[in-house]
Specification:
Helix content is 42%, strand content 22%. It has 325 residues and is of the alpha/beta class. An eight-stranded mixed β-sheet has the order 4-3-5-10-6-9-7-8. A two-stranded antiparallel ribbon has the order 1-2. The radius of gyration is 31 Å and the shape is elongated.
């Protein structure tokens, strides 16, 4: 079924009258005759096949269809005003910051990256996960402001990615607390391990390191997703190979511990952007932080003791006096 294109000039007249509620006043403000304004609205009604107004005394009231049309008109002309403001003055801090992250990336790292914005008033975040190639397409199409990845990207024909390393953390052997810590030595051969999948750069470097030292590890599971590795490390007797930022909450609570740091093995975290005239103003401050801030493992906040009422304090004092008698 074909539809004729919408006449936005007619829609704008309808929008102006609907917001004011008075045809005569709107015509004077728009500097058109009342009859011309009425004619434009009738043409819009004919095109839509619905009446948009009915008269109530000297004022106009929206019909049900008119209410629906007004919602769309508000969105359309609001977006137009935002477009003009953006092109004239740049993107505003209250515009949504759109962050894409590779699906296998540590959730804790993602939270650390956006954490400075979480307590700020008027901030809207849109977080999207997916494959790196898909996220880069969205970045190129201006649907994302930045992509977070644990793999760098390189220049392609017609694609000038800006890839910067924003943090790097040593990879550790992590697991439940044990009497003897697990290290990368002969003792590790009897310990079941949870390792990243074979396509991971961490796994490739770890396998090379084990081969160099003549070690053969027992692989309990190969997992691409960091969140799943964290769960398996917490709920089994195996140890996992991952950066400690992935399990920082479990380390704080004592459920897991960092047995040892694997020498020379690191995971890097990258922020990928493209050159833009209208970069989001909040993105600049996020990218300006040093890696200690990005990876900060803040201590848990002590619980705030509940305040006791005056009556509760009197009862407690009475019990204490009775106990001394």
């Amino acid at each position: 079924m074909s539809t004729s294109p919408l006449n936005f000039h007619h829609l704008h007249y309808f929008w102006a009258v609907a917001k004011d509620g008075n045809l005569t006043r709107t015509a004077a403000r728009l500097r058109v005759s009342q009859s011309a304004l009425s004619a434009q609205i009738r043409r819009l009604e004919d095109a839509l096949g619905e009446a948009l107004f009915h008269r109530t005394g000297r004022t106009l009231a929206l019909t049900e269809a008119g209410g629906v049309a007004l919602e769309y008109a508000e969105t359309i002309f609001g977006a137009g005003a935002e477009l003009v403001a953006t092109l004239q003055h740049g993107r505003l801090p209250e515009h949504a910051l759109r962050v894409g992250a590779v699906a296998t990336l540590s959730r804790n790292f993602q939270e650390s990256f956006v954490k400075p914005l979480l307590d700020q008033h008027g901030v809207t975040l849109r977080l999207q996960s997916g494959r790196l190639d898909d996220l880069l397409e969205s970045l190129a199409d201006h649907d994302l402001d930045v992509v977070l990845s644990n793999r760098p990207t390189h220049r392609e024909s017609g694609r000038a990615w800006r890839c910067r390393r924003i943090a790097r953390q040593a990879v550790s052997i992590v697991g439940r607390p044990r009497a003897e810590p697990v290290r990368l030595d002969a003792g590790i051969e009897s310990t079941p391990m949870i390792l990243p999948g074979p396509d991971s750069e961490i796994r490739t470097e770890f396998d090379a390191l084990c081969e160099q030292r003549g070690l053969t590890v027992r692989v309990l599971a190969e997992v691409d997703d960091m969140a799943t590795m964290r769960l398996l490390a917490r709920d089994t007797d195996a140890v996992a190979l991952l950066p400690s930022v992935v399990v920082r909450d479990e380390i704080r609570r004592g459920e897991l511990c960092e047995h040892s740091v694997v020498p020379g093995l690191f995971e890097s975290f990258y922020a990928i952007t493209v050159a833009r005239r209208f970069q989001h103003p909040r993105l600049r401050s996020l990218l300006a932080r040093d890696e200690a801030e990005v990876l900060a493992m803040e201590p848990p906040r002590p619980p705030v003791p509940a305040k006791r009422s005056a009556a509760a304090k009197r009862r407690a004092t009475g019990r204490a006096r009775a106990a001394r008698r």
